């Protein structure tokens, strides 16, 4: 997954990171996107739908945990949000499939 400069900067602003460690942060963001997609389903990190925005929030939170060497605590601390997002993505996919029938 290609991480845009805008997404990287949004994460850096949120984390108050002013120094340059862009390659590391891009890698962490990419890993987090893959992880959240694996747990919750497909989303568009740059999208505007509710599920996309919630997924982006989880990506940023997981990246924050990874950046602080605490990723092993992420899933326990965000389990309800992960489960809720996964269900909403699955229901939206099902609704889309039923709408085309």
Overall description:
By secondary structure, the protein is mostly helical. The chain has five helices and no strands. Helix 2 (22-40) packs across helix 3 (50-67) and helix 3 runs antiparallel to helix 5. The termini are far apart. 23% of the residues are buried.
Quickly describe the structure:
With 101 residues, the protein is an all-alpha fold. It is 72% helix and 0% strand.
Key traits:
single chain, 101 residues, 5 helices, globular
Number of DSSP helical runs: 5
Radius of gyration: 14 Å
**Element string (H = helix, E = strand):** HHHHH
Low-confidence stretches: none
Main sheet attributes: strand count, strand direction, barrel closure: none
Quote the average pLDDT. 94
Which class best fits the helix and strand makeup? mainly alpha
What distance lies between the first and last C-alpha atoms, to the nearest angstrom? 32 Å
Helix content: over 70%
The best one-word shape is globular
Number of strands: 0
Strand content: under 5%
């Amino acid at each position: 997954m290609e991480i845009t400069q805008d997404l990287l900067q949004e994460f850096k602003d949120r984390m108050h990171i002013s120094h340059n460690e862009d390659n590391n942060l891009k890698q962490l963001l990419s890993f987090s996107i893959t992880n959240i997609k694996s747990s919750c389903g497909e989303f568009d990190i740059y999208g505007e739908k509710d599920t996309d925005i919630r997924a982006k929030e989880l990506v940023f939170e997981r990246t924050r945990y990874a950046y602080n060497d605490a990723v092993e605590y992420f899933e326990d601390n965000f389990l309800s949000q992960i489960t809720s997002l996964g269900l909403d993505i699955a229901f939206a996919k099902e609704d889309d499939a039923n709408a085309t029938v």
